[in-house]
Amino acid sequence: MLEKYIFSEREECWRKYWEENKIYEFNPDSDKPFYSVDTPPPYVSADHLHFGHIMSYSQAEFIVRYKRMAGFEVFYPMGFDDNGLPTERFVEKKYNINKKQITRPEFINKCLEETKIGAETYRKLWSLIGISVDWSKTYSTINKHCQKISQWSFLDLYKKGKIIQREEPGAWCTTCQTAIAQADLEDEENESQMNYINFKDEEGNDLLIATTRPELIPACVALFVNPNDSRYSSLVGKKAIVPISKHEVPIMTDESVDLEFGSGLMMVCTWGDNEDAKKYRIHNLETRAILEADGKLNELAGEFVGMTLKDARKAILEKLQNNGELIRQENISHVLNVHERCGTPVELIKTKQFFINILDIKDELLALGEKMNWYPAHMKQRYIDWVKALQWDWCISRQRYYGVPFPVWYCEKCGELILPEEKDLPVDPMNESPKISQCPKCGGENFLPENDVMDTWMTSSLSPLIVSKLFENENVQNKLYPSSLRPQAFEIIRTWLFYTTVKSFYHFGDVPFKDIMISGHGHDEKGQKISKRLGNYVPPEQVIERYGADAMRYWSTGANLGENLRYSENEIKNGSRLVNKLFNASKFCLSFLSYENKELSEDLEEEDKWIINSLNKTVSLATKYMESYQYSRARNEIDDFFWSKFCDNYLEFIKSRLYGDVPDVKVKSVLYQVLLIIMKLYAPFLPFITEEVYQDFYQKDIGEKSIHLSSWPKNIEIEINEEDIASFEKAIEAVAEIRGHKSDNKLSLGKELDEYQLKIEVDEKHFDFIKRAIKVKNLIPRK
RNA sequence: GGGCACAUAGCUCAGCUGGUUAGAGCACUUCGUUUACACCGAAGGGGUCCAGGGUUCGAAUCCUUGUGUGCCCACCA
């Protein structure tokens, strides 16, 4: 064995070894039960991975490695999420462009280039950290394979009547210039003013209304009061005059108006918010849509035409002020919905979009949520809350460039929607024509492509299907779907997890995966969320260079599932200390071991039985914890066994037997077995150092090409008498007592005592053990 | 306004279904070159287990109320 473990050299060596020998390759012909992982495809646009990513991927990987050793044929693919708005936003920012300044093909090319760079960066980091992914099985959400499945999904749902195209007011981002979905909204605390503004009634009397959106005054279509509000009952049914634009609007009643709010008079505009949109349906209001897709006002806004909402607000308030119609302003702080990708406040605009019906299947989705196993269990509640709170159907079309195109054309003459055959997928309607030459409805011969692309979640919501379809064989596909495990972070429960469940329900009527493990976030040393903006993290590559991948992984074991984990250089150092300790303990053991002395003797010493008994308990607990995704607890048990039971006690106890004139064969057999099991227990967490020890000694004897393909340990079967163990533990206490005595008297532990009188009671049959374990010539029992 | 989680040593956290003196790692103090390891070993100091109330022979653990922290959702004229 090596004299010293230089992790940088050795880790690189094992990375190569695993790759060259295809250690983690999935074998679809295997007889073993399959365990498939629906790996989260990171957004390549995330640009740089930080240790939060390392944490969550490592945590999933601990389980994957355990399952592989526990006898499953593990399918662990990797995907890259590189289509859609996140990538577009990334490219726009990086090159300081927007979709209007560049042609569609140019823009798509830039996105594809960045996608390639991103994927390569990620792959390097994942290999660096030792992620046991089968790199021959990857996908990227923009590739043909994914486009085909996404378009198939569209066709299937369209034919089932679950996708509907309709024109209605919906969430719109004026920066990204596209429709967005409810899940794309984020709350943001905002400082603003409540403006009290005078309208006029028919007789010219003042009508005070309160609004946070004065810029929408030209879009006002009605005033509302509560039907029980006696102050205004005489006005109901009459008209009001809107300031500035001077158009007339009806005064109506609606139960939802709060008597206490402002003056009790409410202005409804096209479209102020979701509530307004509802009133349009109920009261059949006319519309005055002043906002265009680019966020600027149109002719209906009169003199404010061409202004952005922000500028219009300023100008309108100024004018109201000059006219004496702005009575007063109050500073308020309120929460408004912004687009999560760019932070722009979300507006409502009436557009034609494709929607997937989700509001009608809430019960079914809740039932599927119950059917899946959530780790930790309380994360299920977030899913339930989200499903129950859904207000809109899922808008799946985006007025963007870089995404999967809809497989849709329209007949130029009659507008009929034309779909391709399933076998012709994927199609790009903007570059190819439909296979049919005539519209089946009107016989028209010209077709127009659908220019929109799909929401990025339309593709990622199919990830379990995408990975199963990486295989031709249908039998294999069916064994891989639903996935065994979906590991992911909590903030995308309402998107990735939710949408995947929707798709799985509509396509197959069942869950997309069986178990879900939800990880927390990585935080900086102070407990703040890591973000690129704050720059509060060290690039993981640097940490790995300094302390090694095993040490970095060790830090990841520090948080239970669902919990956030602070970055701590100290914990990483602890990891490298452990690696060092494992190496040294192994070096020591291996210097005495040989393949001949591995069968356990019938007649073991008490300390041998004790260590085997402790090990068995550790194996049982670690197995139990790994089975329930509690890798953190498993690691605690293993650490405690290795560090304090095995190193601090057992190895010290047996030194006299190993260094004796007559070699003790019994103790060698124990070491052979125990050390191997220690390595196996640590293998999921510390794949490099454990491989080092395995390859150095055990591999030739056992035969498996890698410790990571060897079997998860079982208990060593020996006869254990619990009373004997308890009695022996008294002897260990006695050793501790004598250590204390030596420490109190400032003596070296190696110094032999002539005589010692015990303070605790110990069976005299253990005296010989105590004498040689702690070096005492004469031991006197307790009086 | 609703939901979820958390609150234990200076710090980061274990303590799961209630049971003898509440644990670990780091930090701190003292000691030890012992032929695997000083990236080590031994010993030690340090805690009204957030607060009040309740259940119980017995509560850090269960119930309840409150306080504080974090996250999510809703409202958002």
UniProtKB/TrEMBL annotation:
Q: What keywords were assigned to this record? A: Aminoacyl-tRNA synthetase, ATP-binding, Cytoplasm, Ligase, Nucleotide-binding, Protein biosynthesis
Per the UniProt entry, the Enzyme Commission number(s) are 6.1.1.9
- Molecular function terms, GO-annotated: aminoacyl-tRNA deacylase activity; ATP binding; valine-tRNA ligase activity
What is catalyzed by this enzyme? tRNA(Val) + L-valine + ATP = L-valyl-tRNA(Val) + AMP + diphosphate
What is the taxonomic lineage of the source species? Bacteria, Candidatus Falkowiibacteriota
What Gene3D superfamilies does the record tag this protein with?
HUPs, Isoleucyl-tRNA Synthetase, Domain 1
Domain called Aminoacyl-tRNA synthetase class Ia: residue spans: 15-566
HAMAP family xref list: Val_tRNA_synth_type2
Does the keyword field hold Aminoacyl-tRNA synthetase?
Answer: yes
Tagged with keyword rRNA processing: no
Name listed for the protein in its UniProt record:
Valine--tRNA ligase
Q: Which BP terms in the Gene Ontology apply to this protein?
A: valyl-tRNA aminoacylation
All residue ranges annotated as the Methionyl/Valyl/Leucyl/Isoleucyl-tRNA synthetase anticodon-binding domain in the record: 608-755
Tell me where it resides.
Cytoplasm
Which Gene Ontology cellular-component terms appear in the entry?
Answer: cytosol
Q: Tell me, what's a Pfam family for it?
A: tRNA-synt_1
Q: Which PANTHER family match?
A: VALINE--TRNA LIGASE, CHLOROPLASTIC_MITOCHONDRIAL 2 (PTHR11946:SF93), VALYL-TRNA SYNTHETASES (PTHR11946)
* UniProt xrefs under SUPFAM superfamilies: Anticodon-binding domain of a subclass of class I aminoacyl-tRNA synthetases, Nucleotidylyl transferase, ValRS/IleRS/LeuRS editing domain
